[in-house]
Amino acid sequence: MDTQRYTRGLSKLREVDGRAGEEVMAALEPVCPDLARYVVEFGFGDIYSRPGLSLREREIATVAALSALGYALPQLKVHVRAALNVGITPAEIMEVIIQMAAYAGFPATINAALAAGEVLADAGLLPTGEEEKPA
Questions:
Q1: What's the pLDDT score for residue 20?
Q2: How far is it, in rounded angstroms, from Cα 125 to Cα 61?
Q3: CB–CB of 125/84 below 8 Å?
Q4: In what residue span(s) does the Carboxymuconolactone decarboxylase-like domain sit (predicted)?
Q5: Residue 134 has what pLDDT?
Q6: Distance of alpha carbon 41 from alpha carbon 12, whole angstroms
Q7: Which of 29, 44, 88, 102 has the fewest CB atoms inside 10 Å of its own CB, making it the most exposed?
Q8: What is the structure's pLDDT at 22?
Q9: With 70 as the cut, is the pLDDT of residue 1 above it?
Q10: How far is CA 42 from CA 3, 5, 16, 119, in A?
Q11: CA 31/CA 33 separation, integer angstroms
Q12: What is the distance between the alpha carbons of residues 120 and 135, in angstroms, rounded to a whole number?
């Protein structure tokens, strides 16, 4: 195991996802410890730690990609929480998801909006429609 990559990845995972990311890794550990290590080392130690994009920009891209997939709803929920954690507003999250309707279709977009809505409702942050919309 590359301990430098793992340590860097674990630090970035905590910065982005907080406790939620650690819970995902803890759930994977008994089932597939190698996959848990790969997520930390590669996903966060290599990819999320790269220069060039802020964590905010990375989470916008991640929410968009997971929304477009349409079938990664548990991972989308984790990253909606992460998006909030790095300063993305609930209205911005929903705008990112709405943008996916043009590229991923309405079924994937509806699934993503409902999943994100669950996370936002749990956090007491569900948009009411009266917030200022992005220009």
A1: 82
A2: 21
A3: yes
A4: 33-116
A5: 60
A6: 10
A7: 102
A8: 85
A9: no
A10: 12, 8, 15, 26
A11: 6
A12: 22
